[in-house]
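Before the break, one more example. Copy the sequence into your notebook; we will annotate it together after we see the structure.
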Amino acid sequence: MKNLVKKISTILISVLTLVMMFGTVVSADGSRLDYFDFGETVIKINAGESKTISLRTPYKWTYFVEGATSKKTYIETDFASGSSQITFHIGEDETGKNVFFHFYVADERVQSTDVHDCVEIYVQPPKGTAAAAPVAEPVVAPAQTGKVNCNFADGSSGYVALINDGKVAMLYDAAGTGLASFSVSTTGLQNISVTGVVSNGGNYFSVTGPAGGKVNISDSDKAVMTAKGFAGISLNGTCINWP
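Here is what the structure looks like once it is written out:
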């Protein structure tokens, strides 16, 4: 009888333990939860409006926007590690229907520069209006400074422009679609400027920035840059190949 009671007690404890474990699971969203834990990753926002979600990450990070046509489509945040709030602003003149905010780890503690996650925004027409008609003019990238035109190895062309308050250089095709990006860091991401393209046994983006800065680029973006004919950057006159 004692053995039977002991077995029943053991089963009940096991069941209660499982119930407690499943009962304490915290809802999370994202494909790389060890790096980015978003409150949501697919969001509907009306043009001209914004939405705030939570973000937990132990690392420094950066981002770029894909598919946006408005300079007023951007993220408002403190870019801090830990728990924070990020607000997605969608410009009232936004005509892109699907806008992607790509998040990248930019932290010296993470060896890989290809840690990436994404939040997708379904842009809705402004309240009380019909869907905006497509515009005929080329897409305007959300750049912080003037763009620098450049030719690609495949015979096409595009341009480079700065985003993220001048801390990330984005390569666009002629239609304004973001292709790849890079940044320069010392103790953190630094402001840079891109002035053109120089040739030195290969094509390099001419960049003015912090002395001794480290080039940050993901493996996938490096592959795109290389395919387009760019070997790296010329930082303050010193050529640096993609790491």
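Residues 4-8, 11-31, 134-145 have pLDDT under 50 and may be disordered. The chain has two helices and 17 strands. Try to locate both features in your own notes.
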